[in-house]
Amino acid sequence: MSAAMSHTDVGAYALGLLEEPDRRAFENHLSGCPACDTELAELRGVAATLDGISRIPEPAGGPPAPPEPAVISDLLRRRIRRERRHRAARAMAAAAAGVVLVGGALGTGYTLGADRDRTASQEDAGTAALLRDGHRTSAADATTGATGTVATRRTAWGSRIALELSRVRGPLECELVAVDRAGRPHTVAGWAVPAAGYGLPGSARPRLTLQGGTALRPREISRFEVRTTGEFAGSPRTLLTVPG
């Protein structure tokens, strides 16, 4: 058996159609031919599929002559090529689906970002409205230089509170505290002050505005205090006291 004939016998060998001498010759060839070994591994799946198909009854005139091994190998190679094309098409479809999913996720991200921006704008508008229409009290601290205004509005759950703060230098971590008539503090909100602060030379923002809340009703609040907290505070101190 020539080397060329051995290459064409892969399909016939996979289906068990080779005569004994040709089978032994092909096995000798297979031990030194990685290409045939790889193709045989692919063809065995097809052969296993064919083994599960019941035999077709022989025609009345007797069985037809079996096809040549080369014909069988050619047919099986065509089948393998079709399967490879289908696998490639499925891989491309999966890649395209991945692009669509990523694109959808990015689109969702932009939408969510827009929603966050819209929510922030609504919160800013709500804080400005509360500072404009709520019950307002203002104060300035001669020692720290801080100035601020607090506005309150009664709600079903307590009080909504807005703060406008200026002339505070950072870096600081601060909190707004509502002190009740018994002297007990209730935290309303917390925030970080940048190094340049608010309302000072070199500050990017003239003032800080924020909104928070407490379970206390307005008439239960004695005063508000802006206090320092956290690692930048050193000893905690009160920057500003605003009447309730």
TrEMBL record:
UniProt KW Protease keyword: no
Membrane-traversing stretches: 88-112
Keyword annotations of the record: Membrane, Transcription, Transcription regulation, Transmembrane, Transmembrane helix
Domain Putative zinc-finger: 10-36
Signal sequence residues: none
Annotated Gene3D superfamilies: Anti-sigma factor, zinc-finger domain (1.10.10.1320)
Pfam families given in the database record: zf-HC2
UniProt-recorded name of the protein: Zf-HC2 domain-containing protein
Native species: Actinomadura spongiicola
